[in-house]
Automatic annotation (TrEMBL):
One of its GO terms (molecular function) is glutaminase activity. The lineage of its organism: Eukaryota, Viridiplantae, Streptophyta, Embryophyta, Tracheophyta. Pathway: Amino-acid biosynthesis; L-histidine biosynthesis; L-histidine from 5-phospho-alpha-D-ribose 1-diphosphate: step 5/9. Keywords: Amino-acid biosynthesis, Glutamine amidotransferase, Histidine biosynthesis, Hydrolase, Lyase, Multifunctional enzyme, Signal. The keyword Repeat does not apply. Transmembrane segments: none annotated. It holds the Pfam family His_biosynth. GO terms for biological process: L-histidine biosynthetic process. It comes from Zingiber officinale (Ginger). Residues 32-115 form the Glutamine amidotransferase domain. This is Glutamine amidotransferase domain-containing protein. Gene3D superfamilies: 3.40.50.880, Aldolase class I (3.20.20.70). The keyword Signal applies. IGPS catalyzes the conversion of PRFAR and glutamine to IGP, AICAR and glutamate. The glutaminase domain produces the ammonia necessary for the cyclase domain to produce IGP and AICAR from PRFAR. The ammonia is channeled to the active site of the cyclase domain. Belongs to the HisA/HisF family.
Amino acid sequence: MILRITFICAVKGLGLIPGVVGRFDSSNGLRVPHIGWNALQTTKDTEILDDVGGRHVYFVHSYRVMPSDANNEWISSICNYGDSFISSITRGNVHAVQFHPEKSGDVGISILKKFLDPSSSSKTKKSAIGKASRLAKRVIACLDVRANDKGDLVVTKGDQYDVREQSNEKEVRNLGKPVDLAGQYYKDGADEVSFLNITGFRDFPLGDLPMLQILRYTSENVFVPLTVGGGIRDFTDGNGRYYSSLEVASEYFRSGADKISIGSDAVYAAEEYLRTGVKTRKTSLEQISRVYGNQAVVVSIDPRRVYVRSPDDVEFKTIKVSSPGPSGEEYAWYQCTVNGGREVRPIGAFELAKAVEELGAGEILLNCIDCDGQGDGFDIDLIKLVSDAVMIPVIASSGAGAVEHFSEVFEKTNASAALAAGIFHRKEVPILSVKQHLLQNGIEVRVCAEH
């Protein structure tokens, strides 16, 4: 049999495998949860893992078991994240893994095939040992999905959130079908695919069946993590029936999502938490994190830059800008927005990030309204500000226009991943080109076998 190891804390196990489960130690700067593609080092010759040594597989967890003399005979592979921990065990015909083979692309599919048909291992020539050695930086493809005027769901993208063409018809910009594009990005080497439903779930989230179908169809052929966001909140339908945000998120998860992204609702929750200092356990962020784990919850932050002459002008965290503002200002803060950037809120990106981390977010998707669609690069000041402030992974978003922008954000900030949309949809910058550039600059990324 093959099992997925799920480690939890403070519970006595069956005692079959010697060891103690512990949380990753974040006191030395380690980001927890451990999310992403990390290298495996095999320690035992097994048919199932015969060609995965030195290659990346997908992890998402906060707890691990350390190798020791007592459990050494069980260990078939280890992974290093801060320290070496057990990533798989093998004994007789029992195999268990800490990573997710079903989300580990071609490597994971190979593992599952060998388990189902052990003879396939001997039929296939062993591939060369990979060169992966640590946690890879992730390249994520984002698909903004909305209904066009005919009611069909399409992938779209706009400048400063305007997704309509400038022609007389003013039609919604159509860059492709969601399922087809997601499948292509998977083949191209995207480490994750993120869907943002920018028109659905406004009035009746659980009634948005086409988007749920997109998740189901995509998960059948795309074997990397899928994130989906858009309208995850408590609501009451036209008949007076109340639905919790947890019910909405659960439908996403059942349809194939691995992570959900919360935007506006997380801003309101953070504002209330900072005002009262009380965790109510009733917000969408807290509910979903408590039931599914914080690794399943991404908070999307959409700020815009506001210039000020002095840090004393505002109560929020400011930065000294690399280039002066329109009136010569030397400082700026990042004001958060809701409702797709249409409404500003009295909270800064720094303060919001710290608050949602405490409320249970496992990852932050950091956008920048000023940079969106501009193609001039990520807002390095913003990403550095937030990624230095929190101990959970941060995804850089908004502004990528060239391969150099990806290496810049990884070299100058602590971002764990970088996300792009339009440049991938318009085929201006292929995902493979991004990864080749990162490798040439000494930045570790996952490389697919076919590439």
